[in-house]
């Protein structure tokens, strides 16, 4: 309706319209935010209603953070004077605590900061000034804000903009554009939600002089020199990022030993880096995600180096070596699946570097026909290259030489059914073109994990069960950063032959108590149907989420998940004993 000039929302209907921001359908919420981005609201009361609605959306559905931040930025640009007014009202929330620290754990604070930094770019005239210190506070959220505005500007541009605004109490759009020649903003004609729509609106976007976003420096994915310099000034989060990025630099240096055949020396150095990261403080607010990501990245590199070592073996493997290599590949696949699916808030550049590691793992498989399921691996290679190409277009970055070479080679390989011959030399050549780039962590990623507890259960206090009948297993579940739209499963097993899956309905997750926007707690009684005819037994339970992006061919488990699971917690052992009260019944 908005794009065909037929949208008209009366003031009396505004509350009903904004109620769609907390609708259970993510599609409905998304469409509402798209309309609000184009809105021109004539009264401050209506503007404040919209902002409150978006904040409520963010509180109820934290997984919408990226889109909510983007909507707030565009709404702020369209209503500069109202934005300044509302920031003045919210200023007590934006100031540091008595200890001098900003509320890093408050997404609400970040939302107001996103709104505030949009004001200087307003199309309105005589917009009041936002206090320069607000832009300094926004720098502390640089990673998450830049991720939300990645379709508008890259991180280096955002940092330059915030730095300039933090030094000047009065800056206009024209002033910034003329003096810095950094951003070009196309005009728009906002839709008035409380009157007849005049025309469709073209969304504004900022470009560099070449007409592209250039999300990362052409020689290195990540932040530029100015961002590296700023890390020393961003407080505890940036200090941690700086330490982690120094570790990543060491890892890159150690990797250069792997192609030379000095794998043991490289592994020793990377393990030392892993021990150093493990000693970092994980308890500070927001730091757990960065530490968890760094550890997972190091685990991936360790497994990759261990598999790479087998490239030097040119003869056919002895069966025990084949089994050993298959085991190493299984561990590498699991680590890659975890780093791709257990972290949120990564930039497109960070995702691309992870995809490069996945491509290397696939090529290593293809180079060893003894352990390769050729057709499936080729399909996954093709889909991964396509995903990387999509991210390049989204971030307007130039692909690495390695990805370019892999893409070129795709037409030279095919399925075994098409009659294509196996070409190990081609895969070896592609692996030779790979060079590990230094990973640069731009922000603090969110860490998706879970905790499982079986209250009061141990070897001395087993749960009762009746042989042959379902047993009830009471679980206390805590989910961290898990979207309510994720498909979560419990895996309960005694052995590989006695394994069952139990689906956790999203309504159950939504009903859980939230200690924060990212943490949900609830209890659930899981049935276990495969009880043996025995006096006692032990089983294990773990919790995972389906990874839809991982599967070329869906996994078919009767009564279980259709896709591979990424497990979010260690297995929890459960002790059960035959109920004496039911002996007469049996």
Automatic annotation (TrEMBL):
Domain Integrator complex subunit 4/Protein SIEL C-terminal Ig-like: 453-577
Database matches in Pfam families: INTS4_C (PF25458)
Record's keyword terms, sorted: Nucleus
Subcellular location: Nucleus
InterPro entries for the chain: INTS4_C (IPR057412)
Principal location: nucleus
Domain of life: Eukaryota
Listed name of the protein: Integrator complex subunit 4/Protein SIEL C-terminal Ig-like domain-containing protein
């Amino acid at each position: 309706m908005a794009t065909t000039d037929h949208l008209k929302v009366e003031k009396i209907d505004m509350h009903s319209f904004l109620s769609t921001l907390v609708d259970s359908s993510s599609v409905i919420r998304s469409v509402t935010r798209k309309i609000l981005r184009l809105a021109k609201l004539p009264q401050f009361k209506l503007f404040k209603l919209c902002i409150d609605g978006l904040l409520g959306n963010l509180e109820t559905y934290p997984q919408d953070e990226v889109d909510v931040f983007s909507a707030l930025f565009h709404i702020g640009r369209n209503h500069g004077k109202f934005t300044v007014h509302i920031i003045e009202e919210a200023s007590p929330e934006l100031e540091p605590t008595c200890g001098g620290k900003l509320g890093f754990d408050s997404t609400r604070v970040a939302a107001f900061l996103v709104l505030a930094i949009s004001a200087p770019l307003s199309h309105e005239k005589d917009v009041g000034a936002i206090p320069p210190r607000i832009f300094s506070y926004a720098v502390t959220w640089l990673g998450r804000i830049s991720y939300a505005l990645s379709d508008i500007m890259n991180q280096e541009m955002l940092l330059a903009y915030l730095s300039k605004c933090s030094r000047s109490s009065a800056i206009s759009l024209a002033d910034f554009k003329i003096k810095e020649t950094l951003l070009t903003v196309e005009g728009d004609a906002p839709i008035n939600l409380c009157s007849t729509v005049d025309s469709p609106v073209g969304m504004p976007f900022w470009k560099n002089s070449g007409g592209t976003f250039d999300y990362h420096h052409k020689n290195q994915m990540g932040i530029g020199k100015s961002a590296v310099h700023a890390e020393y000034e961003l407080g505890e989060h940036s200090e941690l990022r700086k330490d982690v990025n120094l570790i990543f630099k060491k890892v890159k240096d150690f990797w250069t030993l792997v192609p030379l055949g000095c794998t043991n020396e490289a592994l020793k150095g990377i393990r030392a880096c892993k021990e150093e990261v493990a000693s970092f403080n994980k308890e500070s607010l927001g730091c757990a995600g960065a530490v968890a990501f760094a550890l997972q990245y190091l685990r991936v590199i360790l497994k990759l180096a261990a598999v790479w070592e087998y490239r030097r073996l040119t003869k056919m493997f002895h069966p025990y070596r084949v089994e050993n290599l298959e085991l190493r590949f299984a561990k590498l696949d699991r680590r890659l699946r975890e780093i791709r699916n257990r972290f949120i808030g990564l930039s497109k550049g960070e995702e691309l570097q992870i995809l490069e590691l996945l491509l290397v793992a696939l090529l290593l498989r293809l180079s060893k026909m003894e352990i390769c399921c050729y057709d499936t691996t080729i399909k996954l290679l093709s889909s991964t290259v396509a995903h990387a190409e999509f991210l390049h277009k989204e971030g307007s970055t130039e692909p690495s030489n390695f990805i370019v070479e892999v893409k070129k080679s795709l037409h030279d390989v095919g399925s075994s059914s098409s009659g294509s011959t196996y070409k190990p030399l081609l895969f070896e050549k592609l692996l030779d073109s790979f060079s590990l780039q230094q990973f640069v962590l731009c922000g603090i990623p969110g860490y998706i994990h879970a905790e499982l507890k079986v209250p009061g259960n141990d070897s001395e206090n087993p749960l009762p069960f009746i042989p042959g009948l379902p047993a009830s297993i009471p679980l206390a579940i805590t989910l961290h950063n898990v979207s309510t739209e994720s498909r979560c499963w419990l895996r309960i097993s005694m052995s590989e032959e006695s394994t069952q899956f139990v689906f956790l309905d999203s309504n159950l997750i939504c009903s859980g108590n939230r200690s924060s926007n990212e943490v949900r707690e609830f209890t659930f009684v899981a049935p276990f149907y495969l009880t043996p005819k025995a006096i006692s037994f032990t089983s294990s339970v773990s919790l995972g989420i389906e990874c839809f992006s991982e599967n070329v061919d869906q996994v078919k488990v009767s009564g279980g998940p259709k896709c591979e699971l990424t497990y979010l917690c260690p297995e929890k052992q459960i002790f059960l004993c035959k109920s004496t009260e039911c002996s007469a019944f049996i």
